């Protein structure tokens, strides 16, 4: 029986990559979990938090912050995001990349739900000017649904603009992920790709670990994929993409996936639990809703 279990287990991978970043998901109940991502050894080199300003816990650390304009300002002439990023750069922050809108093609599950025309106007006012400061611009991060690439195509037509890289979100199996990235590459052959949210949602542990190993090897091998960030920096009992996808157990210990992602050996810690089910195309709705609440207080919708 022991031999059978060994043969059925997914390959244990301990790989290292400078491409890896953190989708930062704060926990008000367990703030000490933040220290896990800063404890060496760690492959993490960058992070984002769906907001324009850095998270205090990561200020003056080895992680480079990438600001994101999650939605659109409430005022048609608002330059909140542009002003925030310029202020950080003027203060000496190393900001070389920004991310566009979060899942603008979706209005639920954490999507910002923006029309292409409004997104185009906001991009040209809030994001495009940053290129003059040497900042590379990430396109709006659409969902992995078929409508996502349609939205992105219509957006570029409306704004008559270009992006330096294309963010990708995916929550299905590896075959679908590779196919989707192939579609993105075919549509935008001159841009690099960042995979800024991905996981295999709500599957058994063996398949989830297999997906992680396949996808990380794929991302590390493909030169036009320059950055990637696994969606799972939370405890398994609150994970809305399934407990097995989380990088932390319900007790706040690194799972095998969490440890592999940091470039370490497997821990053998098995995740348990999981929050309500999320559809396969979006991100973690409860987390993004909390972030959006904070953004709303700053005058954004």
UniProtKB/TrEMBL annotation:
Spell out where the chain crosses the membrane: 281-300
Q: Which residues form the Asl1-like glycosyl hydrolase catalytic domain?
A: 21-261
Sorted alphabetically, the keyword list is: Membrane, Signal, Transmembrane, Transmembrane helix
Keyword Transmembrane helix applies: yes
What InterPro entries does the record tag this protein with? ASL1, Asl1_glyco_hydro_catalytic, GH
GO CC field: fungal-type cell wall
Listed Pfam families: Glyco_hydro_cc
Tell me one GO biological process term.
fungal-type cell wall polysaccharide metabolic process
What range does the record give for the signal peptide? 1-16
- Please state what the protein is called: Asl1-like glycosyl hydrolase catalytic domain-containing protein
């Amino acid at each position: 029986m022991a031999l059978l279990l060994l043969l059925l287990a997914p390959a244990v991978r301990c790989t290292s990559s400078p491409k890896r970043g953190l989708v930062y998901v704060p926990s008000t109940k367990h703030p000490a979990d933040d220290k896990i991502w800063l404890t060496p050894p760690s492959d993490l080199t960058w992070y984002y938090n769906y907001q324009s300003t850095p998270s205090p816990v990561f200020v003056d650390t080895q992680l480079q912050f990438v600001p994101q304009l999650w939605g659109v300002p409430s005022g048609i002439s608002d330059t909140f995001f542009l002003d925030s990023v310029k202020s950080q750069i003027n203060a000496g922050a190393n900001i070389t990349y920004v991310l566009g809108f979060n899942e603008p093609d979706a209005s639920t599950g954490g999507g910002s739900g923006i029309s292409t025309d409004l997104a185009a106007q906001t991009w040209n006012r809030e994001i495009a000017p940053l290129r003059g400061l040497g900042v590379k611009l990430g396109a709006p991060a659409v969902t992995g649904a078929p409508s996502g690439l349609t939205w992105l195509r219509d957006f570029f037509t409306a704004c008559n603009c270009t992006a330096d890289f294309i963010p990708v979100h995916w929550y299905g199996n590896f075959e679908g992920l590779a196919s989707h990235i192939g579609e993105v590459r075919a549509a935008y052959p001159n841009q690099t790709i960042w995979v800024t949210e991905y996981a295999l949602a709500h599957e058994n542990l063996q398949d989830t670990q297999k997906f992680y190993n396949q996808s990380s090897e794929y991302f590390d091998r493909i030169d036009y994929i320059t950055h990637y960030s696994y969606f799972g920096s939370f405890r398994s009992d609150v994970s809305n993409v399934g407990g097995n996808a989380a990088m932390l157990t319900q007790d706040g210990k690194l799972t095998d996936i969490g440890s592999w992602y940091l470039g370490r050996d497997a821990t053998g810690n098995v995740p348990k639990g999981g929050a309500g089910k999320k559809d396969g195309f979006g991100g973690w709705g409860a987390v993004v809703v909390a972030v959006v609440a904070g953004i709303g207080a700053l005058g954004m919708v």
